[in-house]
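In response to reviewer comment 3 from the previous cycle, which asked for concrete evidence that the modeling workflow produces usable outputs, we include below a single protein chain processed end to end. The sequence was submitted unchanged, and the resulting structure tokens are shown without manual editing.
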Amino acid sequence: MKITLNWLRQYVDFSGTPENLAQCLTMLGLEVEAIQKLGGEFDGIVVAEVVTRDKHPNADKLSLCRVNDGGGERQIVCGAQNFKAGDKVPLILPGHSLPAKPGAPPFTIKTGKIRGCESHGMLCSPDELGLPEKIDGLLILRADAVVGQPFAEYLGRQGSDVVYDLEITPNRPDWNSVIGIAREISALTGQPLRLPEINIASAPAVAEPAQPVVSVRIDEPELCPRYTARVIRGVKVGPSPEWLRSALEKVGLRSINNVVDVTNFVMLETGQPLHAFDLHLLVGGKISVRRAAEGEKFTTLDGKERSLTDSMLLIADETKGVALAGIMGGQNSEINSTTADVLLESACFKPQNIRATSKKLDLRTDSSYRFERGADVGICDWASRRAAQLILDTAGGTIVEPAIDAYPAPAAPKELNLRPAKTNDLLGIEIPIETQADFLNRLGFETVSPGDTVFRVPTYRVDIKREADLIEEIGRFYGVDKIPSTPPRGAVGANAFDSVHDQIVEARRLLAGLGLFEAQGQTLISDAAAKLRDNGISQVALQNPLSSDMNVLRPSLLPGLLDSLRHNVSRKNDDVALFEIGRVFLPAEGKFKEERRLAIALTGRRLPTFWSGADRDAKFDIYDLKGILEEFLEFFGLRGVSFAKCEPGNLFFVESAIVQLGELALGEIGQLSPTVQKSYDLRDAILLGELNFDSLLARRNASKSFKPLPAYPSIRRDIAMLLPEATLHEAVLNVVRQAKPQNLEKAELFDVFRGKNIPEGQKSMAYAFTYRNGDRTLTDTEVNTAHGKLVEQLRQALHATIRET
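The workflow returned the following structure tokens.
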């Protein structure tokens, strides 16, 4: 939003410099994006007439001119070629500076010699003056320009002024007005706020006849809580006076005519959008505020025909729509040169409806910008009377009284209780009760009763909802820069959320230490990607998805990791090891539940490229994934995890296994099926794993114990067994755990063999069993006895044939 310093000073006095005001506004929360000086930047620039133009004696491309600046003639050296004697041009006098360009220092003109000839000033081009005209040479002025007239006056910029370009935060719609900004300055400086006087009661008026001129019906009071209509007869539409046109042009609005300019002026002044209709173009003189019919066509003032929906609010007469409520009027009722009677609308509309309509039609205006953020329902009639008075002043006419104010359910004043002690607790400083109340009173918050701390919220402060908002206002006017930085007081120990965060950080550290890179996928994915993992699970779908690629909440982390693999492989990064810890969303009894998961994805070579080594081209396989998980779970505090092979039939994995902790299934690992792999344009085998991270957190034992290095030697016994092909390593370990051999320290599988001398349907598995006692050296007899019992248990439980002991 743009405002000018002179406009602000009409409502509140401010004695500081323009830069001081910008600093004050910034500290109040109003970001000043740019400051532009008007008039003042043309100091020392006057209208001059070229008396003679001769060739420079020492330069072919320069001219030696005599110009009249209104006070006499002076010599100027000029390099432009587009002028002649008799032309009127802008002249900057010595000692003055050209308008500064952004980021550049001002350029000051001095008297000096150019190629041996003195030059007392400079004739100016539009670019040198910072004007938008694109001219190769000097700016040639109108023939009727007065010689010696200040150039700012020639442009219609009477006196100097300053334009502030402000960035208004969405929660402060009251700042979208000059009066709103002036109110802040008044509260900060203590200077009184001067609102314009309205005297339409003394203006020419005609009493309403027996039959009303207009009527207003609000069909949707929820979408339009208030609608005021005021009729002004006998206006004369024409150009706006200089003060009005200048005020609008300074802030970037084009002058249209006196009636429309008044509505724009009052909108900028008060923040309340208004609209003027040609009364004679309203059929029946009846205004209804209704929903548009589905598919109803309406042509707005910009000349575009728009198709409306029944969610959009329309201002209509007896036969047609005449304006899109709160956004833009229609061509069928606009003010024109023949308009004699005006219906002036000042209303309040529901922000959410205006925002939705504006977005759906891709139509954004100054009016919709303000209504989207919340308008002041209490100012509708005041703004209407203010605009009516200005129309009378600029276009003449008479007012039809009384005006119509349709306000079906007047809003009760909002009252909030302030606890001064709470203010001091939240801000961390001591502010006297009287000072707190004074800050709020200066901002327009009325004390309900003397000595009380209950304050009535003004209607223009739609952002004030609770006590903390009042405290924020007090802190703002006390000065955020005056509140010292202090360490937190009364800090308590870590809570459950801190604990979970710390454990997630630890998990990330362990996984990164195992050579994996962390990925972060999108929470929203396509339903097609979600169904790849498990087509039988219903998805948590969005009611209003942004696109078909982001229409469900992810039920698994694996689709996101597959997207990351595809992204890497398509860019020639074929060796990838990723992990992700994140939330997934699953349907649960008509609702949905969130669940933390850990997922891992591997593809390509397991080792980085190296010039030698037998395994330098070895690719990741399922045992790499299993080993990474085992290592991670061991260090994370989950011991005793086992893997159970899944039965065939999983369309996502070509082979897979369930990760178990006792009877609890933690998740699944496997190799991606070729069909799914092909759909992601991936060449090498893809190894995937996904675990329920919440279950890991609930069952981990983070405590660590230490024991000294063994002082006594170990004894090793190896055996090789013939076992059925379907027997798993996990089954062997389970038998070992159940047998509980005395002094057994560890069991390791070191060979699996199939082929010569091995019967069909069987395999040879070789194990090394290590025995050790922490207090003494074991004897061969003790080890043989324990080992013999273990071998017998393997024969009975697994039907193993022992090949060698």
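The CA atoms of residues 750 and 767 lie 6 Å apart. We consider this sufficient to address the reviewer's concern, and the full set will be provided in the supplementary archive.
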